[in-house]
Amino acid sequence: MTIEGISLKGSAQRIYGVGTLTYTKAALAMLFFWLLAGDFVYIIIQQIEPRILPVLLKQHGASDQQIAIIAGSIPAFMNFCINPVVSYRSDRTRSKWGRRIPYLVVATPFVSVFLAAIPFGTGLARHAVNLSWLGGLFALSPWAPVMLMFALLVIFYESAQMVITPIYIYLFRDVVPIEFMGRFLALMRVFSALGTFAINYWLVGLVETHAKAIFLALAALNLVCFILVCCFVREGEYPPVSDVVHVDEGTAHSSLYRASLNFIRESFTSRVYWWTYIARLLIYSSIPMSGFLIFFAQREVGLGFDQAGKFLAWPSLAWVVVAYPIGLLMDKWRAVRALTVALWISAVAYTLSFFFVVGAKTFFVSSMLTGVTYWMIMLGQILLAQEVFSRERMGQLCAANTMIQSLVIACITGPLTGWLLSMLQNVHYSWQLPFVGAVELGPYRFVNLLLAGVLFLSLFAIYRLRRALVGYLPARSQ
Q1: Which CATH number among 1.10.3120.10, 1.20.120.1200, 1.10.1760.20, 1.20.1250.20 corresponds to the domain 7-234+269-468?
Q2: 3 state SS for 187-249
Q3: Where are the domains of the chain?
Q4: What is the SS3 assignment for 299?
Q5: In this predicted model, what pLDDT tens digit does every residue of 267-304 receive, in sequence order?
Q6: How far apart, in whole angstroms, are the C-alpha atoms of residue 14 and residue 70?
Q7: How many Å apart are CA 73 and CA 52, to the nearest integer?
Q8: Which residue among 75, 87, 140, 181 has the highest number of C-beta atoms inside a 10 angstrom radius?
Q9: Are the C-beta atoms of residues 462 and 318 closer than 8 Å to each other?
Q10: What global pTM score does this model have?
């Protein structure tokens, strides 16, 4: 008999279980290998939006507002539309391959195809405008055809990627024994950091000259890796779906209405959930904003894309060294306390960067400090969801959180960031600071203040959550 989260000692070697799955140490090691390999590739692909895509778009004449919409608002909007549906349906899917793997198998080829097509946007736009009906539609837009084509390709790509994004995270909860979850998440962040290091150190500087080769290679890597993950990771059996509503003909509308009301009641009536949603929303809002730091390094610090990318890569390598000890510390502190410390450090560091980053050395120091705390924050917000959200409704609550953050990023923070930077394009000043020297004040220096402001707001949400959590969280043993 297998009991979730309990190690069984009835055999010669120790057996670990989760649901109906059992693992020996060797089998558990192989499970970790495939999941971490998938996470490594997943993080590389996720870095395209904040690191590679803005450089590609800028190279083709995109404005800051267009970059914010294509690399920020469009992904958030697609996440808002797709994540809740996929999360709800996968929780209730029952097949011989499991409830998560089928979605990964179907979505992975589409992700790779559309990812490979993105750098060919210029050529595709030329062909599109030669088609009378499509050229007429393009002519109605104030955007240039090439920008419209990039936006269209990103929509196609995100439509498939937003299937993989939630499903892969939910898979961890289904196949990893709970007694190993903390260590697994710490190792996952190590592999995520290695993926980020690879993107920033080797690829950012090559986007201007080798964009097609980079996107094609990443598309192939994504296809091969996730198909292998689907082949070698096995899900167990799940209990029958207990909340399926059986309706008679003609009552589907009212049943959908009742299901929607139930979703709203369970997801949006708790203060604890609301402050968790807001804190995580603000953290995720900072990610597309950080994509403009590469232009801060280039335009106002005087670094090339290659050098700036390498500086932005080193924090990921540093995180590999400190991730496991920090993971153990977070297990002791819990997520709220850990996020409080990390958000304070990061917000203050971005504020100081606005004033004191004037050259390669100070940019490197700023990148190290904010980069390492970024990984602390991302690990902390994952742990926060694990600690606060109900285990039984994990997918539903994550979907509700995603709906809020996607809507706000798509409609508010993404466009607002692009609009502010566009308004600041004519700001070019230089002033002398004691002990610092000449500080070049341009539009992208203000990205540091935007990031600091968003993180301070997230810190406020964490403080309110801490008050709401009094007496809420169960004991660690439960």
Answers
A1: 1.20.1250.20
A2: HHHHHHHHHHHHHHHHHHHHHHHHHHHHHHHHHHHHHHHHHHHHHHCCCCCCCCCCCCCCCCC
A3: 7-234+269-468
A4: helix
A5: 888 899 999 999 999 998 888 888 888 888 888 888 88
A6: 50
A7: 16
A8: 75
A9: no
A10: 0.70
